[in-house]
DNA sequence: CTAGCTTCCTGATAGC
DNA sequence: TGCTATCAGGAAGCTA
């Protein structure tokens, strides 16, 4: 479910509720979500650690711990992270509960169980999680027309597929690739090698803008976040392209069309995003 | 190297 | 109503 704006929203909600708290104990209901190290070591190593803060890299969430290790999490499709009172009812598909020193609990819920945890020791490298392969952040100053052209202009793949490639720009998923391409007025299936200079320019502008706009629009109070169980980000009402198949384009009124690009459903305005 | 397919899961929804 | 088929915002692993 979550892409960069949603992961960032989660970080902003969870960080102030975990920083400064230590982990009293952990119960792992489903060891399959622990990728590294094994679930037992994960549990014994994390117990007693104190959270110092959180960061985000692409769609990865990172809890920093006082001993220099990092608790890394990727939510994939349906992962949810909640800080709850201890007596909060247990959601179905709760796979991990950490008891915190302030009496609250940090819980991980994931219907489809695609999400993954890693506990990296002080000197453990990002290669363990794959974070080392991530490209630049959408708000990185290095994201320029020249950067995009250098990385992509010789590739024949559809521009939409390249936006989803985490090794070039990190954090864009199916929703925001549709939003970015609509904002930039580019046909999703257009091969990178035939994009015009004007199109590269619009992409370089719209990638950071759309992501920043969505992060802003996702803003939510901790109360509403908990009430929505960490999965209702109200991120559908403000979208302009994704899921709008058949609905009129806000810009020109033309109905959105749907197609499959690289195996992913894509919505686009046939007038604003011409072939 | 890339392209394309499968896999990991459950639940919501569409169609009959 | 009840059944089955299809699809879902991600990414790794596999084959060709």
Quick take:
This protein is an alpha+beta fold and 275 residues long. It has helices spanning 4-18, 39-46, 145-152, 159-163, 174-184, 197-217, 222-227, and strands at residues 23-28, 34-36, 51-57, 60-65, 70-74, 79-84, 94-100, 105-110, 116-120, 257-261, 264-268.
What's the helix and strand layout?
Blueprint: H1 4-18, E1 23-28, E2 34-36, H2 39-46, E3 51-57, E4 60-65, E5 70-74, E6 79-84, E7 94-100, E8 105-110, E9 116-120, H3 145-152, H4 159-163, H5 174-184, H6 197-217, H7 222-227, E10 257-261, E11 264-268
Parallel strand pairs: 2-9
Antiparallel strand pairs: 1-7, 3-4, 4-5, 5-9, 6-8, 7-8, 10-11
Helix pairs in contact: 1-6, 5-6
The structure holds a DNA duplex (16 and 16 nucleotides).
Shape designation: globular
* Overall radius of gyration: 20 Å
Average of the residue pLDDT scores: 92
The helix count comes to: 7
> What is the string of SSEs from the N terminus onward?
HEEHEEEEEEEHHHHHEE
**First-last Cα distance:** 29 Å
Weakly predicted, low-confidence segments: none
**CATH homology superfamily name of the largest domain:** MutM-like, N-terminal
Class computed from helices, strands and strand pairing: alpha+beta
Name the helicity range. 25-40%
Give a quick set of tags describing it:
about 25% helix; five-stranded mixed beta sheet; single chain; globular; Helicase, Ruva Protein, domain 3; DNA-binding; four-stranded antiparallel beta sheet; N-terminal domain of MutM-like DNA repair proteins; alpha+beta; about 280 residues; 2 domains
